[in-house]
Design goal:
5-stranded mixed beta sheet
Length: 373
């Protein structure tokens, strides 16, 4: 098979993997395409909830046609037995002759052992096809495994001068309907949405993905509320039995308030105290331990500043409207002590697109771009 055909089929596998974003945690979203004599005979993405794996589903679709075929997989096939048998064994049993992979698996139970098992079975293996794209697709899972925290995307919706509300607190709506729909899609592509209690008290959001069919697993809302000030009548608390809701509180927070929130169906997670509020690095480690790989942070200004100060923001999705409020408006991030320009968090623009009358600018941290280069 030609190099151009390999690239085309791997792009298809990566596109399938992206479809699973937000639906497969704690497992990575993996895409698999099986090709026999130039024809696609099987294709799949990891199932919602992380099981079955993509390879197993694609092999089931291919059936007997898998024998002698090539499998294109976005991530190194697993070789350990967990809740499902190893995908390497399924590929071997299916008679696959060649496996083409984009990214290696950072999980120490795999990390090259999957490739080794396939080669030991006589299967030809090619690694690193569209490697940069593969690493980007697996970035959330890799962050959970290697950095013990989810990949954090900070979503901002502001005016051109970086204001998220007027001085009186009015913020609905700075951006238009098209941008808000795109923000819902962003929720759908992440495992969970996190806000600070200030945003909850000011806006009483629902924090759900309201695009039918996009989110195939339940929405997960997380509120950083160090002293559990959330009103029991708030939208999130009142619907906690229907939509999973976690509250991150300082260890030792009023047990009665915790019990009242738990009685509504929410989960309360005690986090060590930080200099202000909760210890955010510790909170993210706890979320990773619970399986989260991709976390969307929607504000407000205090938690945005705290995450930036702690160097915990990996990506930014900035929705900006063609408007100006002025210095008396609320900033997108509160002060967090930057005194020198070389101390500023730096990001690199990866995409900029018009959405209705607004713009969406996507950015990644500059050091991540430097490492990739």
């Amino acid at each position: 098979m030609s190099g151009m055909e390999d690239l085309a089929h791997m792009r298809a596998a990566l596109a399938l993997a992206r479809r699973g974003f937000g639906n497969t945690w704690p497992n990575p979203s993996v895409g698999c395409v099986i090709v026999k004599d130039g024809r696609v005979v099987g294709r799949a993405v990891t199932a919602p909830g992380g099981r079955p794996h993509a390879e197993t589903l694609a092999l089931a679709m291919a059936g007997a046609a898998a024998r002698g075929a090539t499998a294109y997989v976005s991530l190194e096939p697993c070789c350990h037995t967990g809740r499902t048998p190893p995908c390497t064994d399924a590929l071997i049993a299916g008679g696959i002759a060649r496996v083409v992979v984009s990214a290696g698996d950072p999980d120490k139970r795999v990390d090259g052992a999957g490739f080794a098992r396939l080669r030991a079975a006589g299967i030809a293996v090619e690694e690193g096809v569209l490697a940069a794209e593969g690493l980007d697709v697996v970035a959330g899972f890799a962050s959970r495994i290697c950095r013990t925290r989810p990949l954090v995307t900070l979503k901002l919706a502001s005016t051109l001068d970086g204001r998220i509300a007027t001085h009186a607190g009015e913020s609905k709506w700075i951006t238009g309907p098209a941008a808000r729909r795109a923000a819902h899609a962003l929720r759908g592509r992440n495992d969970a949405v996190l806000i600070g209690v200030g945003t909850l008290l000011a806006d009483d959001p629902k924090l759900t993905c309201r695009i039918p069919g996009l989110k195939k697993v339940p929405d997960l809302r997380i509120v950083a509320d160090s002293h559990l000030r959330t009103r029991l009548t708030s939208s999130i608390a009142a619907t906690a039995r229907e939509v999973p809701s976690w509250f991150l509180v300082r260890a030792g927070t009023d047990p009665e308030r915790q019990r009242a929130m738990i009685d509504l169906g929410a989960e309360v997670i005690e986090v060590p105290p930080g200099s202000v509020g909760i210890d955010l690095p510790a909170a993210l480690r706890m979320l990773a331990k619970r399986g989260l790989t991709r976390l969307l942070v929607e504000g407000g200004a205090q938690i945005a500043a705290a995450l930036l100060r702690a160097d915990l923001v990996d990506r930014i999705a900035w929705f900006h409207a063609p408007t100006v409020i002025g210095a008396d408006g609320w900033p997108a991030a509160q002060a967090f002590g930057v005194e020198r320009l070389d101390a500023m968090p730096r990001f690199v623009r990866t995409n900029s697109v018009a959405i209705g009358e607004d713009m969406l600018t996507e950015l990644v941290r500059a050091d991540a771009v430097a490492e990739a280069a």
